[in-house]
Amino acid sequence: MNLKGVLYALSFVTLLANTVCAQDKKSAREKYNFNYGWKLNVGDVEEAQNTNFNDKLWTNVNLPYSWNQGEAFRLDISHLSTGVAWYRKIFQLPKEAANKKVFIEFEGVRQMGEVYVNGKFAGRHENGAMAFGIDISAFVNPFPQENVIAVKTDNDWRYKEKATGSGFQWNDKNFNANYGGIPKNVFLHIKSKVYQTLPLYSFLGTTGTYVYATDFNIAEKKATVNVSSQVKNEEAKTVSAQLKVSVKDMQGKEVASFLGNAISLAPNEMKDLKASKALQDLNFWSWGYGYLYTVTSELVVDNQSVDKTEIRTGFRKAEFKNGMVYLNDRVIMMHGYAQRTSNEWPSIGMSAPAWLSDYSNSLMVKSNGNLVRWMHITPWKQDVESCDRVGLIQAMPAGDSEKDVEGRRWEQRTELMRDAIIYNRNNPSILFYECGNESISEAHMSEMLAIRNQYDPFGGRAIGSREMLDSKVAEYGGEMLYINKSARIPFWATEYSRDEGLRKYWDEFTTPFHKEGTGGTSHSNVNGTKVTDASAYNHNQDAHAIEDVVRWYDYWEARPGTGDRVSSGGVNIIFSDSNTHYRGQENYRRSGEVDPMRIPKDGFYAHQVIWDGWVDTEKPAVHIIGHWNYEKGVTKDINVVSTAYAVELIVNGKKIGKGVQSKQFLFTFKNVAFQAGSIKAIGYDKSGKAICEDEIKTAGKPFGLKLTSIERPGGMLANANDLAIVEVEVVDNKGNRCPTAMDMINFEVTGQGLFIGGIAQGPDNYIGSKNLPVECGVNRIFVKASDLAGEIKVKATSESLKAAELSIKTVKTDLQKLSLAMPSDNLPSYTAKGPTPNTPSFTKTRNAIKVTAVKADSNQADAEKSFDDNELSEWTNGDGSPKIEYTLEREATINQVVLKLSGWRSKKYPLRISVDEKKVFEGITPTSLGYVTLDVSPTKGKKVQIELMENSKDSNDINLVEITGKVDDGGLKKTNSKTPQLPIVEVEFYEPIDTLNKLTTIK
Known about the structure:
This is Glycoside hydrolase family 2 protein. By secondary structure, the protein is mainly beta. It folds into six domains: about 25-205, Galactose-binding domain-like (Jelly Rolls); about 210-315, Immunoglobulins (Immunoglobulin-like), CATH 2.60.40.10; about 320-620, Glycosidases (TIM Barrel), CATH 3.20.20.80; about 630-695, Immunoglobulins (Immunoglobulin-like, Sandwich), CATH 2.60.40; about 705-810, Immunoglobulin-like, CATH 2.60.40; about 845-990, Jelly Rolls. It is about 10% helix and about 35% strand. Strands 49, 50, 51, 53, 54, 55 and 57 form a seven-stranded antiparallel beta sheet that branches. Strands 3-2-5-10-7-8 form a six-stranded antiparallel beta sheet, with no helix packed on it. The relative contact order is 0.09. Mean pLDDT is about 95; it is low at about 1-30, about 965-970 and about 995-1003.
């Protein structure tokens, strides 16, 4: 070791000794849970900000708490109550806070929040979406004096920014449920005069601590961990400062400790301090593997530890290239949900305990979803951190509505994106930053990219927007309800299925005998449009699940491994039924694969089957849609979802036969007669080997009730805010759920708990009612804990059914106004899927043959647009002959031609295709969400000619509603030409893989 190394080692030992000494003397916490002990008044009150104001008659609440949350799912989104509400709290600072900095952090206030401390105005936040922090050091009184904080909130839909008079684009009645007040967590930070800043740019202008990894070697489990922490000196003297970093694994074992270089900080100076170290034996964060490390960044000033920041983070490698997404060097096809950012629940809105966020988000993973695209609004930190724990990839928006904007409203969007990136850049689950729910200009995209590059240059995240199909700046894109392919940046569908269906409706043969698609719409949309055909919004469970499977097929067909241009998947809208932007007969959106209380619909299980794998299927599965408890004489089609090659149905031991396969994953058995007993589906591979099965048995007559609780891991907290889900089932005398039961249930809650309620179809959706029915044999309610540890007793009764009782014990917790118990303390990570596999994620299925030249009988100047990897450009023949010829890079045996023809949803084209003048296809193209694959007679050649034989035909085979975006008409452009048009957006040519050679596989 050289002299420099010896001196460094000696200084490190000395520093460790001094740090231990300093830590022994230090007793104060730097971050406190500030959620407890608030008072609430709904309505504006004069002088409520004053310290001597009498608030004894105000309501006692613990945060997070939205003052109108009890209206969630009872009222239409546009009817949720709005107005001014005040929150107040009296507190003392700890003794150790003397002469220190004091900051308050709000995870969010809706829409506007004015903060007063001891009667003095401290700051106003107005965007209603993002966290913000305020330095209240100059306003607070030292121990033992009391402090009063008062927050005036206003959630008016029409709220305008006071300085500019501009509204906020995302304060929108279509999608942003208006839960007013303080619906998220609040924290208090106490820091020394030399401190690591907070990642709260609004008001504070600071960026906090940035933790990221570089130099990945996934195979050898190595990476360099880097810490960059912004430090500010508010002492009156120059100081010497450096970082000491500790990295601990999920078991709390320290796996690394290292120092950064010492730097000098002048008074009021702010600098970034850095430290890094190469680590090995790392566990990389992955889909369904929420492995997290605790990185502690300790600020050492003049050899004394003065400030400590803990970052819970994970390390993973992400790349976006070749039209695909790579996670830890393995291609992953995106499949998941476009979920409303409010992520709300009945009666509590979005103000859920942290464990409940984990429960909901982990269900997305358990349905084999790997991505949640939060819609329009930045998700609150609790959901962001929850996705880290459960291993769910996130697409994080900032704030927008449905179009690009200019002026102050665009500035608001860039400011929100800046704040959101700074606040969430340490969360490994975020892989995408979304700049808009529709395309934005290239200039605006460049602005957003610059923000990402400035504040998160090393996070391994792509920034883009919905659409952006021809952008040279965006790093990902993708339309809604269409299929896009790319050889450049990944394209994934931002919303690919928007249908709705109430969980209550199994099918047309089950009580209440809902005929598929009936019900119409009971309203005009808040945006002024009307639904003329609402059948897609009034599905039963059978039809809704089938639609999920059918819609996924177009994306699966274009998956990685199918060529040079591929689809990177897409997200279904939505995961859980939402209090926003509904279309059908009910007053809330029912597009979810689970209902508002997260009870699965059949679509949940369908997704489990079709999404089981990173790209290719990894575990063959089968699911029978529906139940097996019909009346005698019922005959119906049975639909089965499976990734098997073939599926056989067996009723009471008798083989019904093999199902008719469609859209790859759907197997239909026509006119199956109900017979009480058992119905079983068995899936087979190509060799005829049984590889998966599912079975449903007929339940007996309703006998009694069964109660089950779903609680916080480690026990329900006695904090007057924690919740437990209580599930009630109608069961037969053997304990089996009766799937057709609709009995009314009466609930009674006693002890240290409070009945909150659930949801069902009926008056006010039964919100808050202690009497509500089961639907399809099951329902759920919420029970809230009191602030005293003890026992909650829940009793459920129903006429002619055996009653059930349940006991829940609550656990004492720290309820101080400056609490040491954090909302997410001790919540476990979900790691069931294990680390990223080191096997290939897909097998290549065909070879793409490149085009080197093209010749058109007309409009030659645009001919190359028919294969330019740009879905917003096309060639069409105009007034000339509808014929075009392609020269391939080499002679090849062409067996498939893939086309994207304008009007793909509504047009069928009669085509003739020839290879070296030999006819290989003559027929009519089907409609699709974008691309059609035409199987042609395998023919060797180098020139391929495509010719339109006559006018295209209109088709309504695909009855999708709500098509929006730039390509609403499927790319069709109006023309005055009387010549039949052959508009080609993209064309691709494929040859089969030579099975005599090694099968090509790609990771």
